[in-house]
Amino acid sequence: MQAVLYISHGSRVKESVAEADAFLRCCMKGIASPIQQICYLELVQPDIHKGIDTCVRLGATQVIVQPLLLLSAGHAKRDIPREIRRAQARYPQITFKMGLPFGVDERIVDVLVKRLTESNVLIGPKDVVLLVGRGSSDPEIAESFALICRMMKLRGFQNIAVCYLAATKPTLQDALMQFHARLPKGRLFLLPYLLFPGLLKRIIDKAINDIGGGSNLVLCQSLGFHPILCQLLRNKVQGMIEDDSFF
Prior knowledge:
Largest sheet: 4 strands, parallel
Distance between the termini: 12 Å
Strand content: 15-25%
Number of strands: 8
Helix content: 40-55%
Strand order of the largest sheet: 2-1-3-4
Low-confidence stretches: none
Oligomer: single chain
CATH topology of the largest domain: Rossmann fold
Mean pLDDT: 91
Structural class: alpha/beta
């Protein structure tokens, strides 16, 4: 019997966990799998270990492990594969396969554009769009954001910059000081490249407050619960289910 185990990030902010759960349960409605469970990378139970145990207890013989992550970094390359290897040792009779994060995708860039236009403020030639990423020491993250910036420029947003909340530079604080000070006639649009930011939203709010905010700074919504993202995740999982060679 087939199972899909979705791995959400987890957060100390209950509202963020609930939002991610609601997103995943919406995605589940379009997935043809008899067993579908949610677990978490950190801070929330059940963890991956317990999530896999539940799938097996419910009768799973094949488990698709699908992370709810935007880009490939430490969680996707090390943490989750390590847990799958441990599960394989516990359950040698079970077949495990891991799905990929969303990755860089034109349709996700479309969602970014929608988040910018939701502000109801027209973006002019003197304005700057600052993409705010979670951050990672993995060099692939910087490469991914460079590609995202190129896609944004093709959509007419020429003044694009990137900063990060952790692990690498430029930091959000450095970028805010750099751009906020030099935009007397333009505006700075902060565009979080995050799904359900949780405590990270508080970090962004504090950084804005520390520089005094101002009418020339516009904070956009994160990617969040969007139908395009839901369909992308469904497509990923359903494609693995229908691919007989996958297992």
